[in-house]
TrEMBL record:
Protein name stated in the entry: Vesicle transport v-snare protein vti1
InterPro entries in the cross-refs: SNARE, T_SNARE_dom, v-SNARE_N_sf, Vesicle_trsprt_v-SNARE_N
SMART domains named among the record's database cross-references: t_SNARE
Transmembrane segments: 206-225
Keyword Transmembrane helix belongs to the record: yes
Membrane topology: Single-pass type IV membrane protein
Chain segments carrying region Disordered: 96-126
Keyword hit for Kinase: no
Pfam families named among the record's database cross-references: V-SNARE, V-SNARE_C
Family statement drawn from the similarity comment of this UniProt entry: Belongs to the VTI1 family.
Length: 230
């Protein structure tokens, strides 16, 4: 069964993968791109930023279940992850603003992309950019699907463990109930025996009392004949 710290590590790995991808796009690819290709990269970065936001939320949930003795080290990692995400959000926003400003002003880079004599008249460059974007989106979707399947399997395993624990607890309860029933039967028998012994004791006391009374009467009779009729 996975512990909160184990799930934290799993989400941290996914987050690290996203941060590396964002670093490659925002600090590398975008600087060497222009036009539609640059916009497509920025859109993919926005999607990854949203996904990173979701993972941060999961990390905040998992850290609540981590024992307080080791929680500070995980809290420090979560704080650093938030700082990295905030930095890349700001960088993405700045790059998008720069791209929009370049489009509005008709910068030389944008004009060069539109008017280059090597442009494909059938817009093959745009198709290639869209194809690359689609391929990366599909890859990201496949990775998220794999992560969802892993979480589903982990949840299924946890459910199976819970069912096994409940089965063992039910068996223990049934054994305890049988033991209590046997003890109750034994107590009932012992109670009957004690009651019989008490009745027998009372009978013996009555008989002993009668014997004493008879002896007293006999002694009185003997004394009467010896003393009165002498």
């Amino acid at each position: 069964m996975d512990t909160p710290s184990g799930l934290f590590e799993s989400y941290s790995q996914d987050y690290a993968h996203l941060i590396n991808s964002l670093r490659t796009k925002l600090e590398g690819d975008v600087r060497s791109q222009s036009g539609e290709q640059r916009k497509a990269t920025l859109r993919r970065a926005e999607m990854e930023l949203d996904e990173a936001d979701d993972i941060i939320s999961q990390l905040e949930l998992e850290i609540q279940g981590i024992p307080t003795s080791i929680r500070p080290q995980y809290a420090a990692r979560l704080k650093q992850a938030k700082l990295d995400l905030a930095r890349y959000k700001k960088l993405s926003k700045d790059l998008q603003s720069q791209s929009s400003r370049t489009d509005l002003l008709g910068g030389s880079a944008a004009r060069g992309f539109r008017n280059s004599p090597s442009d494909d008249p059938y817009n093959e460059q745009g198709d290639r950019t869209r194809l690359l974007a689609g391929h990366e989106t599909l890859t990201d979707g496949s990775r998220r699907l794999a992560a969802s399947q892993r979480i589903a399997l982990e949840t299924e395993q946890q459910g199976a463990d819970i069912l096994r624990n409940l089965g063992r607890q039910r068996e223990q309860i049934e054994n305890t109930r049988d033991t209590l029933q046997e003890a109750d039967t034994s107590i009932g028998r012992a109670t009957g025996t004690v009651k019989g012994m008490i009745r027998q004791m009372y009978k013996q006391r009555v008989i002993l009392g009668l014997l004493i009374a008879v002896l007293i009467v006999v002694v009185l009779v003997i004394l009467y004949f010896k003393l009165v009729r002498r």
